[in-house]
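Writing this down once: the sequence line spells out the residues, with the fold written below as integer tokens. I am pasting one below:
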Amino acid sequence: MQTVAAVTMVRDDAFFLKAWLRHYGDLFGRQNCYVINHGYGAEVAELAVGCNIIGIPGDPHKNFDVKRWGLLNNLVGGLRKYYRHVIVGDVDELVVVDPASGKNLLQYLEDAPEKRILTPLGLEVIHRVDIEPEEITDHIIGPRRYVRPAPHYSKPCVVSAPAKIARGGHFTQYPKLHTPDDLYLFHLKFCDFSQYAGAMDRRNSITQSMGDDIKGTSIGRHWFGAARGEDREVFEAFSDLKLEDGFDLGFMRKRMQRSFKPRGDTGFYEFNRPAFDTQYQLPERFIGVI
């Protein structure tokens, strides 16, 4: 049985897809990467050559995210029969193992217990436009060194046990919480100002073409122009976050464990996701990890 497969769904986001392919494709081999090409995009197909590409129609329709996660759930369930672990998530989310562990992600998962769902600690890579003028030409960590805690992106995304994943990937019907000390989920939405603006333009265009509201489309609020705000102000505000010393984030995992509980009577489980007004500089050992 193969160790790990990586699964994502993408439409047009070439910048993030390149990062996803470099990260998982180089680690696991492209033959173990599954890319759902929403809209049969030619650029996606070209970039993902060597991966398992699944093309689906891109016509606007209601309940988009419900359908998307129904497809992802079924694909993950099938792949689990052939892989010990399946990583599933958006194309701008990458699971990273701390280099201090002495292992890369493949080596880490080769040694990881099975029949579990792992929840990496969510960190949002932010572009400090006031002090980081360098463009991203290949690796992201290097030109970008700052992260802010993002409990919303502490997602149960490394799957080796049967369990339904909720829309958005935030919750599972799995009654235990495994938060390994060395695992992080890097969310890249804010890693570059110009890429952010372009991605938001595309997403706003998609939701506008659907002709419906947040409830009708079942897409996150951040895809809608009305919730976007002023791009430059969003990035300039990152400098106001308190810069913490060091990189000891164990207390966040402890908070997750203490607050873990059923999500009402839905069958899913959750933990508290407080807002933080802090940021951290990634240690040098993370440079080049994505």
